[in-house]
Amino acid sequence: MNIHPYMSNSSKLFPAYPRGDFDLESGSGTFRRPRKARSSNPCSYLGKMLKSIGGRLQYYYKIHTLLFFTVSLCFGVVVLMILSMYEFRYRNLTDYRRLNVDLANYPFATLENLVMVAGHSVYTSNSCGKVDKEDSWFLESYQKHPGQAATFVTHIKEGVQIAAKDDAALLLFSGGETRKDAGPRSEAQSYWAVAESKGWFDHEASVRKRALTEEHARDSFENLLFSVCRFRELTGKYPANITVVGYDFKEERFAGLHRTALRFPETRFFYRGTPASSTSIEAALVGEGLVRQQFQEDPYGCRGSLQRKRLGRDPFHRSIPYPNGCPEIEGLFHYCGTAPYDGPLPWA
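Request: output the structure for the sequence above.
Response:
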C-alpha cells in the first residue's frame, strides 16, 4: 500500500486558501490585492517632472516677479542671439551655393586656382623698352637701388610661368594707384603692361587670356584679400589653391600672418619667393622686420601706422568696390580685431 506522507518532498505548495484576511466562521473576508508596480513609462515620468518644474516657476514668479521677468528676458535675448548667428551663417552659405549654381554668367568659370603677383611700383616710362631700368619706374627712396627694377620683372615672369604650368589658374597682378607723383596709374596695370611688352615670356597664347588685374590694394594684406574677392568676381567661386609671388623675405608675412588672418588652409597656400637685389637686401630685411611686427599686432591693418599707410597710398581717393563681388566674406572687410576673424568663410 502506498503511503503518502503529509509533507511531500515536492517544492510546490497547494494554495488551500487565497492570501488575505478571511474569517472562516462567517465565511466572509477581504482579500488584499497586490500593489501595482510603479510605472516605468518615461513619458509619465517626464510629464510629472515638467509639471513640478512648472509649479516651481509659478511659485517663484509670484514671490519674485521682477527678478523672474529679468532672468526670462536675458534668457530670451541669449537664445535670439544664438539663433540669429546660426541663421546668418546658414544664409551666407546658402547664398553662396545659390550664386554658384549658374557659373555660365562668369567669364572665367572654369578656372580653379589663383596666382597673385603683388605689385611694388608704378611703371612711368612712355616706352616699354627699358622695363628693367630704375628710371622707368616710380621708386620710393628705400627702393632706389641698382637692380631693383629687374626684381619687378622677375616677379612678373615668375607669375606668368606658374600660370603657364596650370591651365586652371587665373593670374592676377595686384596693386592700386599708390603713388601721387606717378599719376593715376596702378601697379597692377604696370605689371600687366610689362608682361605684354615681353610677349608674356613665350606664353602669350596660353596665359594672356587669363591674366587680369586687381587695382585697389594698398598693402600686402589687401593684395591677398582683394585678389581673393576679385577671383570670386571673375569665376563665381573662391580659389581652391592660392599661389603668391613676391620677395622671398616676405614669405612669413604672406604665408604666415596674412594667410592666418584669412584662415585659408595652409595645405592649399603656396608662396614663390625671389631674391631682392644684392644692394637692397640689408635694408629690406630691416624694413620687413618692422612691418611684420606691425601686422602681428594688427593682423588686418586697420589701426595705427598700417591704417595711415593705407590712407597715404590712396592719393586719388579711389572708391574700393569690395566686398560687392564677394558677399560671402563681407565680414572680413569690416573686421578689425587682433584675434583671427571667426565668422563663416567658404574655405574654412
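The first helix runs from residue 42 to 63.
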